[in-house]
Design goal:
The chain is 25% helix and 29% strand. The protein is of the alpha+beta class.
Length: 633
């Protein structure tokens, strides 16, 4: 099938081969209609006329299309033309866990726990939907460039409602990761995946599966009769807590294993916290060791720094004049102007669509997790999800009555929603299930933000600042000397962050949020929202249509005038130059040149617009009161 390279079928241009398997070839392709790369799994022509194989192939697409989760590769649909059958799915730029282990020999235990946690989120979600994977292994796991884990090949998964694939004696899976019940040919359920996850975790840490014998027969015998060697017995630094997690996942009797991914995940989170505490203790008591090896390491690193610095200096000399001249600004200016037609009627009416959300209550915040899946929260405990890029939303039924004000999702897939009376909801599976966790306060919480997979902040009225160091599962109340109401928080990096609030309040931190300093006020109007594109360029909006921009990382702010604009509620960078802000009475303004100039779009809506989110493909969705949702084109 290599002759497909550079060929176009329908709207897909085939670019390269990503991998080959027993049923066909996986290609990287470019979707010319939607301007994105996809992966297309093409059924081999030699088995195209085998009815059972074709049905299994189509079942793969149907099964995986039902699973919409950040940790599962998304299926977009079929591609069926003449003697060609393919499954179009999400393209993940990264490398398989199998290749990662091979390249690294073995992973640090912290990295292994980080990956396992995400695997449990994705697999646990599939189990709740009634699917068992049956072939979990490192080659079916991809780590993307942002460190997010994606699970592939749910095509051989078993639907608990699909009797055509639940027959006794069906062995699907790779023997190195097979559960004892799979090897015996018994019926398998979700507990078989628990076993395979344990095998994968073992291999990440040790570099080899738990039973790595000279032939398949001996591997199967070991799965049935032997216990794996404890990792702590041959790997320095591995604690008994790691052994315990592996032991409970690799029990021969499935009834003695973790009964579900939730409890497995609970122990993994506890293990993660234990390892973090242990590492902290090690660094606290570690003393400098002036060995020659360390000296050579420092010298080597210094040489590298000198080399890099020289390259950077040469680049600076060659480009400095251009960067300081007006040429760069003019280049940006005239390329940006192509975003919108100059005709005002087109600007006002052709660039956004009011969506029929099916929601009547106020929507206070919205978050798109990928191009298809998103979450929104609102009044009366409303949590809503979309699986079609925001075209429709369905309500997640929760037993809540209080108003939810904000929601955020980490790259690892943890979700946190906050609201009135200090309520905090934690979920690892996008609110298919959730836990109400203690905030330690009864103050209304208005905003929550992850700054990395571990650390999150929640802010609210009366100077409330909460911090979580375990992905949002537990929270500590921070002390400081500012009693104002805080509306928004943004971190430029893991250390530097800002909070804005009532009466021109601006707080800053340079130590990851441990301490907060009240900055000198540059306005007495309330500041409602803050966003940065990078470490230098930022924008703040607030009362009376107030807009301030910074080009030096927040050291100073310059006001930008907006005539006829009322209070602004939220601002967001879409690109370096294109910024969107929304506010009261349907206010929607955009800047096409990094915040210097602004245009108002007439929405003819007279509701409060509350939040802005953008998909990776730059589809912009705006939320508001009375169930308002706008797609900004």
């Amino acid at each position: 099938m290599e002759d497909l390279i550079n060929k176009t079928i329908e709207n897909y241009k085939f670019v390269s081969i990503l991998g080959k398997g027993g049923m066909g070839v996986v290609y990287k392709a470019y979707d010319v209609r939607l301007d994105r790369f996809v992966a297309i799994k093409v059924l081999s022509s030699r088995i195209l006329h085998k009815k059972n194989s074709v049905e299994r192939f189509k079942r793969e697409a149907r099964h995986q299309a039902q699973l919409i989760h950040p940790q599962i590769v998304t299926v977009f649909g079929f591609l069926e033309v003449d003697e060609f059958l393919g499954i179009v799915m999400e393209y993940v730029e990264g490398e398989s866990l199998e290749k990662l282990i091979h390249r690294m020999k073995k992973l640090h235990v912290n990295d292994a726990v980080y990956i396992l946690r995400q695997l449990l989120m994705g697999v646990g979600y599939a189990h709740q939907k009634g699917f068992v994977h049956r072939d979990i292994k490192p080659s079916n796991v991809i780590i993307n460039k942002d460190g997010a884990v994606k699970i592939m090949d749910f095509g051989i998964s078993k639907s608990l409602l699909d009797q055509s694939v639940t027959k006794t004696g069906s062995k699907i899976g790779t023997v190195l990761y097979m559960s004892p019940e799979q090897i015996r040919g018994d019926d398998v359920d979700h507990l078989s995946d628990i076993y395979s996850l344990g095998c994968t975790f073992y291999e990440m840490i040790s570099g080899e599966p738990p039973f790595y014998e000279e032939n398949e027969y001996k591997v199967m015998e070991a799965h049935l009769k032997q216990n794996p060697k404890k990792l702590s017995s041959f790997i320095t630094g591995i604690t008994s807590e790691v052994d315990k997690v592996i032991d409970l996942s690799l029990r021969k009797n499935s009834g003695e294993r973790y009964p579900n991914c939730d409890l497995f995940l609970r122990d993994v989170i506890q293990l993660e916290n234990h390892l973090a505490k242990l590492q902290s203790e090690i660094f606290r008591h570690k003393h400098p060791n002036p060995k020659r090896k360390k000296v050579f390491s420092v010298l080597g690193f210094s040489v590298l720094l000198v080399f890099v610095a020289s390259i950077v200096y040469l680049a600076y000399v060659q480009t400095g004049k251009f960067l300081k001249s007006d040429s760069l600004y003019e280049l940006k200016k005239y390329s940006i102007q192509n975003l919108f037609e100059s005709d005002n009627r087109k600007l006002e009416y052709a660039n956004f669509i009011v969506l029929n959300s099916g929601i009547s209550r106020n929507i206070n915040a919205i978050k798109m997790i990928n191009d298809s899946y998103g979450l929104a929260v609102g009044d009366n405990g409303g949590i809503y999800k979309t699986v079609d890029s925001g075209s429709t939303f369905s309500k997640i039924e929760l037993k809540l009555s209080g108003n939810l004000q904000d929601i955020d999702v980490s790259k690892a897939g943890n979700s946190v929603a906050v609201g009135d009376n200090g309520i905090i909801l934690f979920s690892y599976d996008q609110f298919n299930s959730y836990t109400e966790v203690s905030s330690g306060t009864k103050e209304n919480l208005l905003q929550v933000k992850f700054i990395n997979d571990k650390t999150a902040f929640a802010i609210g009225v009366n100077g409330t600042i909460l911090r979580s160091n375990d992905s949002g599962f537990s929270w500590d109340l921070l002390t400081h000397n500012n009693p104002e109401t805080f509306f928004d928080i943004h971190f430029v990096n893991n250390d530097k962050g800002f909070i804005v609030g009532r009466n021109g309040t601006l707080l800053s931190t340079s130590d990851g949020g441990t301490t907060w300093i009240t900055a000198e006020s540059f306005t007495d109007k309330y500041l409602k929202s803050i966003d940065f594109f990078d470490a230098k360029s930022g924008v703040v909006v607030g009362g009376g249509g107030t807009v301030f921009v910074t080009e030096n990382g927040g050291s100073s702010w310059k006001e930008r005038s907006l005539s006829g604009v009322s209070g602004l509620q939220k601002v967001k960078y879409i690109t370096e130059d294109f910024i969107v802000a929304v506010g009261t009475r349907g206010t929607l303004v955009v800047s096409e040149n990094g915040g210097d100039d602004w245009k108002q779009l007439q929405t003819n809506l007279y509701v409060l617009l509350t939040d802005i989110t953008a998909t990776p493909a730059k589809k912009i969705i705006i939320s508001g009161h009375n169930g308002t949702l706008i797609n900004l084109k």
